[in-house]
Design a protein that fits this description.
The protein has helices spanning 45-51, 64-76, 95-102, 114-122, 158-168, 185-190, 208-217, 254-260; strands at residues 3-4, 16-22, 25-30, 36-38, 41-42, 85-89, 106-110, 127-129, 143-149, 169-180, 204-205, 220-228, 234-237, 240-243, 269-276. It is α/β, with parallel strands linked by helices and 277 residues long. The strands form four sheets. A seven-stranded mixed β-sheet has the order 8-7-6-9-10-15-12, with helices on both faces. A four-stranded antiparallel β-sheet has the order 2-3-4-11, with no helix packed on it. 41% of the residues are buried. The radius of gyration is 18 Å and the shape is globular. The protein is built from eight helices and 15 strands. The longest helix has 13 residues, at 64-76. The protein has a single domain (53-276), classed as 3-Layer(aba) Sandwich (Rossmann fold).
Amino acid sequence: MELTETSCDICNSDDRTGLFVKEGFVHVRCNRCGLVYVSPRLKDHLAGQVFSGTAEMGDESLSGSQVKRILFEVKRLEKYRTTNQILEIGAGKGWFLEQAKNMGWETWAVEVNAKAIDRLEDIGLKHVLNQSAELFEAPDGHFDVVRMWDVIEHLQSPRKALERACRALRPGGLIRLSTTNFASLSRIINGPEWVYLNGADHIILFEPDTIDRILRHSGFSNIRIKTRSFNLRRKLYHPEKDLTKVPLFVKPLRKFIDEMIRFSRFGHQMIVEASKY
């Protein structure tokens, strides 16, 4: 396992404080801007995404309720439809783009995982870019919407990917993304054993303040952040093992917390929207 040191992706600083080590990976916080990231990280991180990675994970088919949720999201994007072009960075198995295509959108995908690319082509997507999120080439000002769903935490340089996304959007276009929330109540309670802390794969961990900061640096404005869900699951990845112990006093309150947390910034998932200047 060959590792390489890295600087903060937002401010390029090397001034940082170590937070904890999980499975050999050091998680640090930038002392200048607050970004949490893994350093050193796997030198061949991108190769891991090409030949395995999370693009191959997930359901082999969707339930009716899952399709309904995707259709609801696509319908919400109608007010942005001007060029009729939509781009998903890290499209995975293409569940979202498949529904967008069925609703008349011209769909584009950026994906590096070999099996995911085969799936995207099988469902009839014409524009599949086998390029990394940081280096993809798409027409400037071409898209009404760019989507990045549970992707940004896997990237070597989220800032470069966001800058390219901004360039690809038309003026007034929308970026819509999701990522885990390092500032969530779930992470605070579970500590380093929280399920979403996996230093081989989740290498940059955002909070509301740092996702806002990197979006502004990348050319976006009118940033809206919502959080949702409370997750008590703990896990090790190497070897893979679920850890079932959770604080007993939390269990009776879990449902109540899950309902109320969406009114705060402490949910375990951030849903973020922003506009191009």
